Structure formats: C-alpha cells, structure tokens
UniProtKB/TrEMBL annotation:
Coiled coil: none annotated. It is found in: Cell inner membrane. GO terms for molecular function: antiporter activity; xenobiotic transmembrane transporter activity. GO terms for cellular component: plasma membrane. The chain crosses the membrane at residues 12-30, 50-74, 86-108, 128-145, 157-177, 183-211, 235-259, 279-300, 312-334, 354-375, 387-410, 416-437. It is a multi-pass membrane protein. Keywords: Antiport, Cell membrane, Ion transport, Membrane, Transmembrane, Transmembrane helix, Transport. GO terms for biological process: monoatomic ion transport. It comes from the Bacteria. This is Multidrug-efflux transporter. Pfam families: MatE. InterPro entries: MATE_fam (IPR002528), MATE_MdtK (IPR050222), MdtK-like (IPR048279).
Amino acid sequence: MFSLFTLKELFRLALPMVVSQGAFALMMFADRFFLSRIDSVHVAASLGGGVTFFVSICFFTGIVSYGNALVAQYYGRRTLEFCPRVVTQAVFIALASQPVLLLVTLLVAQSFSAIGHDPSLVALEKPYFQVLMAGSFFFLVKNGLASYFTGIGRTRVVMISDVIGVLLNIPLSYALIFGKLGLPALGIVGAALGTVIAGILTIGIYALFYFNRIHVEQFKVRESFRFDRSIMRRYLRLGFPSGLEFFISMATFNIFMLLYQSYGISEGAAMAIVFNWDMLSFVPMMGLSIAIMSLIGRHVGAGDMSRATQVISSGCVIGLTYSGVLAICFFLFRVDLLEVFASPGEDFSAIRDIGSKMMIGMACYVMADAVILVCSGTLRGAGDTRWLMIASIAIHVVMLLVQLVVILVLEQGPLVSWSVFVATLGLNAVIFAGRVFSGRWRQPERLARVMAH
C-alpha cells in the first residue's frame, strides 16, 4: 500500500535525520581527509581505532537508541509525560555502563598488536581509541537526547544540534591535528579529542531545546527526573536484544575489518577510503531508518497498522532511489573518488589498484544496505527486536566464520574476502525483507505484548 501523504510525512521527518547523520559522516570524512595529509598509516589507524570504539560502546548504544521507539510509542498513545522519563532512564543506563566500558578500554587497547597489526599502525590506533572511550558517557547521553527528539517527531532539533556540533568539530579537529590557533599539534589524538569536545558541546545545544519552557510544561519534564521501574524494565526488555544485536554485528564486522587489514597497509588504507565513501550512503540511510522506527513506533502506539504499511513502502521508495543514484556514482567515478585521499608524495598505485575493485563491490551492495536499514527500522519500531537479534547475529557470525576460513585457512586474496562481504550483505537484505513482508511482526497479540509494561 502506497500513500503520497505518508511519503511526504516520512520525507519531512527523515530529511533532518539524513542531514544529521550526513553531518556525522562529513565529520568522519573530514577527520580522515586531514589525517591523509599526514600519511596513509594515519588513515588506516583512524578506521581501526574508530570502528573498535564503536564496537566497544555499541551494546549500550543499541539499548539507549531504542529510546526512539519507546518515546514514539508513548507519543502515539498520547501519554506525553512518559516521554522525558525515557531520557532519564537513558542517562542512568549511560552511568551504569561506565565501569564496564573502563574495563573494556583496558582490555581492548591490547588487541591491536595481538591481532598482528604493523607496530606503526598500533602506535596510532591505541591512543585514538582510548581518547574516544574517555568520552563514551557523553556519546551515550547525546544519543539518548537525539532518540528522544526523534521519537516525538522533532527531528529538526536533532539536525540543528548535530550540524552545529559538526561545524564546531571540523575546525577544532583541524587545529588540534595540525597545531593551529595556538593549540598543540596532536595528530591522530587531536582528531579524537576534537570529536569528544564537540560531542559535549552538542549536548549543551540539545539541553537548550529540552529545557525550553513550553517543552518543559507540555511534557512535564520537571517530574521526569527519577528512576521509573516500569519504563526501565520495558527499556531493557525491548532494548537489550537491540543492543546485543548491534554489538555482535559490529564486533564481527570489526574482527573482519582487522583481519582484512592484516593483508597489509595498502589493503587497510584502501578499505578505510572505501568505507569513508560508503558512509556517505550508509550513514544518511541510518537517518531514514531512525525516522522509519519513529513513525512505525508512533503508529503501533496508536494501533494504526495501515499507516505502518504505508511507511514501509515509502521508506523503500526513498531508500532505493537514494542508494541507486549513489551506486551509479560510485561505479563510474571510483578512481577519482579514491584519488581524493591520495597522500602527497606517496606512491598511491597499490591503494588505487585494490581500492578501485573494492569500489565496484560497494556499488553492488549499497542498495542492499538500503533494504536492510528500512526493514530493521520497521522491526525495531514495532518491537520485533528479539527476531532481529537472532537473525542478525546468525548472519554476521556465519560471515565471520567464512572470512576466517577464506583469510586464515585457505589464504585467499583480499578480493575474495571482499566478495564474501558483499554477498553477505545481499543475503542479509533478502532475509530481513522476508520477515517484514511476511507480516508476522504485526500480529495483534504480539504488538500487545510489546506495549505492555
């Protein structure tokens, strides 16, 4: 069922989120571009250290992010006073995560050398990772606030806050990397520090909207600053599978990435550059997925499943159109896009050779990414997080096992490993689409359990 009205509604809600997520992609893009001005080792280290950071916090990020669906469901039910209570519980979760994340920081920092990375790479990956982990509490709180405003449909607040944060981050990171404006030249540590500082400033911008007098009165914010056992129980019941699924999928991806980087510096740098361009597709599509989760959650809360069907079809139209255009660009201009990251004075031929073939693979899977994100946003919004967890974990674990065989046992080359990765994303898209269009997630008795406290 397709509705032009719902398409417009989703587009209005998703566009600020796409801009917001795109701003994040731009921030990462800028950091890696600045680091490429030093050398290709810094680029590879920023990918290894950055992805390892996201893996380390993604379990808690997945739980906190589910606040989007919870808030949207309460909003759809018109129980507005419950919405800010979700934010308070998210802060409690962020606080509770800190001892665990401190232990993770100490243990994971040793993994870069244990997996066989070049010592020059390890020397950069480790401090980059540690500085980002030091700011983990702020990243989680920022995520909780963004999820809240998305859940109540005020995605422009998210866009404004995140865009301002990125506009602060880019010059700050540049100054800290290269030692401008009287600041010390910290190299890759400066890139991480700039990201943390910008994240803290972004929380301040969110707070201006959150504590606005009209908003405080409408949503009874003053009464929300307490532990709410029933909301926390529901948060963990539905958010835990989401967090575990996010963690396993990111962990297996990170292990694959680290294994792939063991092919050599050129292969690792090529992967970093390809994924940098991939972010311009994947990260904005995450914005669409977040908007879909919010709208689906709202319609589930209101009991209007016909509108939920319209959201799915509209999401497919937007996602496949956007990713299809980018796929064509990635294929036609693959060499030119790689050359953007050529470090001055270095021989770029090896990176160009492997990277151009990887770009073809990326052009093949970006539309599969769009299907995955539309479907996962739908299932999360409807509370079908347990199935999503089981399916995603199974797919990613099988992918990793195959990669271990390909890379370590059969000792195949990087392009064979990359082909397996591309095929896995295609299979993932087919399985997720099958679940969404089977309709089992929308059974009334199952939705009633989702909404129960």
